[in-house]
UniProtKB/TrEMBL annotation:
<keyword id="KW-0326">Glycosidase</keyword>
<dbReference type="InterPro" id="IPR035971">
    <property type="entry name" value="CBD_sf"/>
</dbReference>
<dbReference type="InterPro" id="IPR000254">
    <property type="entry name" value="CBD"/>
</dbReference>
<keyword id="KW-0732">Signal</keyword>
<keyword id="KW-0119">Carbohydrate metabolism</keyword>
<protein>
    <recommendedName>
        <fullName>cellulase</fullName>
        <ecNumber>3.2.1.4</ecNumber>
    </recommendedName>
</protein>
<dbReference type="GO" id="GO:0008810">
    <property type="term" value="F:cellulase activity"/>
</dbReference>
<dbReference type="GO" id="GO:0030248">
    <property type="term" value="F:cellulose binding"/>
</dbReference>
<keyword id="KW-0136">Cellulose degradation</keyword>
<dbReference type="InterPro" id="IPR001547">
    <property type="entry name" value="Glyco_hydro_5"/>
</dbReference>
<feature type="domain" description="CBM1">
    <location>
        <begin position="20"/>
        <end position="56"/>
    </location>
</feature>
<dbReference type="InterPro" id="IPR018087">
    <property type="entry name" value="Glyco_hydro_5_CS"/>
</dbReference>
<dbReference type="InterPro" id="IPR017853">
    <property type="entry name" value="GH"/>
</dbReference>
<dbReference type="Pfam" id="PF00150">
    <property type="entry name" value="Cellulase"/>
</dbReference>
<keyword id="KW-0624">Polysaccharide degradation</keyword>
<dbReference type="Pfam" id="PF00734">
    <property type="entry name" value="CBM_1"/>
</dbReference>
<keyword id="KW-0378">Hydrolase</keyword>
Length: 422
């Protein structure tokens, strides 16, 4: 029986008559192409470059991503970018569990009183129950846990506040208890408060930034399933080479604290835009960042991309699958440089347009899983269900229902459902 996501894709293709639809794997677009631009049921026209689009089977890619997700639940080895996943499988699929970052704005200021832990013991939503549902009910295997820098240090550029770290750690432990990987994300846009506040470029020094990471990495050095997300969404960075130096300081601090094997996510400019990563110089600057042994093992580029009209993640409707504008050039660059990226924020409204474009984006990422590790949806946690990009499941205990976009597209389980139709 057809699932709704499948129907939405098929409906988009149904505007052309059947004889105009491309067979699976046939060309369906590109510069100069005059043939069919839609695909038969079960396939979606997916741009491989500006010059070439192809009818890619949806079922194959979705089924494959589910396979690897469930496989990774039973493995205890830490991830390594020396592992080459098969094309068609994503190693990580996850959800952001937001709340500790509430009150943070793009100028790097964070009102710590507005931090809202997504944990019932702190009067928040049941983040633990959400994560347990996402793993056991949907097949997810990673969560990203945003937190304001000011919350971690209790508003001073100085030592980590142990009381606040313990509060954040309650969420981290809830995440780890599900068996998933847990991304620690300092959600500060490369800044501390307003004005000339950019880390290493007028704001806190690299040493001050590194000190925070030394303390966090010391705390988690023996926890193999944490991932260090150095900084959320730097933007308007005057000098990318200086920023790469700040990122290097954090990487060196984390490794020297004893967290020698875990993944570290390296964030570029332009709100970590996947689409601007190559064209605006983030890749060329960040590829020089290395571990203390000179290698780039488990140094993964952090990229975000939304699907709405201005890539802001603020609109309910989606207008693009980002393949031509972002993923294709990024994938090409990553292969040429033998590196990998992780899409730690993406999302859309619970609308038919987002189901359609998100399914296409995920299918493309899965086809390029040798260089794209996975994606993390924005967002569940302490948002209200009315939030435009809500991925908040409704329910409690062991009974939860997913939002439309999660159920039909983003959850690994959605692929399993569609795979079983064939
Ligand atoms: C598309 O084709 C043109 C002309 O052959 C070529 O110059 C260009 O590099 C191609 N673009 C891509 C993305 O392959
Ligand atoms: C590229 O980076 C510069 C410096 O941060 C910024 O001013 C500019 O807006 C960025 N351009 C694009 C296209 O994102």
């Amino acid at each position: 029986m057809p699932q709704k996501c499948y129907l939405a894709l098929a409906a988009a293709a149904a505007v052309a008559s059947v004889r105009d639809q491309g067979a699976i794997w046939s060309q369906c677009g590109g510069v100069g192409w005059t043939g069919a631009t839609t695909c038969v049921d079960g396939a979606v026209c997916t741009a491989q470059s500006d010059n070439y689009s192809q009818c890619v089977p949806v079922i194959a890619t979705m089924t494959a991503s589910t396979t690897v997700t469930s496989a990774s639940k039973t493995t205890t080895t830490s991830p390594s970018n020396t592992v080459a996943p098969r094309p068609g499988t994503l190693k990580f699929v996850g959800v952001n569990i937001a709340g500790f970052d509430f009150g943070c704005t793009t100028d790097g200021s964070c009102t710590t009183g507005a931090a809202n832990p997504p944990l019932t013991q702190y009067s928040g939503k049941d983040g633990e129950g959400q994560m347990t549902h996402f793993v056991n009910g949907d097949g997810y295997n990673v969560f990203r846990l945003p937190v304001g820098w000011q919350f971690l240090t209790n508003n001073i550029i100085g030592p980590v506040d142990q009381t606040n770290l313990a509060e954040y750690d309650a969420l981290v432990q809830s995440c780890l208890a599900t068996g998933a990987y847990c991304i620690l994300d300092i959600h500060n846009y490369a800044r501390w408060n307003k004005g000339a506040s950019i880390i290493g470029q007028g704001g806190p020094t690299n040493a001050q930034f590194a000190q925070t990471w030394t303390e966090i990495a010391t705390f988690y050095k023996d926890t193999q399933k944490v991932v260090f997300g150095i900084m959320n969404e730097p933007h308007d960075i005057p000098d990318m080479n200086l920023w790469a130096g700040s990122v290097q300081a954090a990487v060196t601090a984390i490794r020297n604290a004893g967290a020698t094997t875990q993944m570290i996510l390296l964030p570029g400019n332009d709100y970590t835009s996947a689409g601007a990563f190559v064209s605006n110089g983030s890749g060329d600057a960040l590829k020089k960042v290395v571990n203390p042994d000179g290698s780039a093992t488990n140094l993964i580029f952090d990229v975000h991309q939304y699907l709405d009209s201005d890539n802001s993640g603020t609109h309910a409707e989606c207008v693009t699958n980002n393949i031509d504008s972002a993923w294709a050039p990024l994938v090409e660059w990553l292969r040429a440089n033998k590196r990998q990226a992780f899409n730690t924020e993406t999302g859309g409204g619970n609308t038919a347009s987002c189901v359609q474009y998100m399914c296409q984006q995920i299918a493309y990422q899965a086809q390029n899983s040798d260089v794209i590790l996975g994606y993390v949806g924005w967002s569940a946690g302490n948002f209200d269900a009315s939030y435009v990009l809500s991925e908040l499941p409704s329910g409690s205990g062991s009974s939860w229902a997913d939002t439309e976009l999660v159920a039909q597209c983003m959850a690994p389980k959605a692929g399993a459902q569609r795979g079983s139709m064939s």
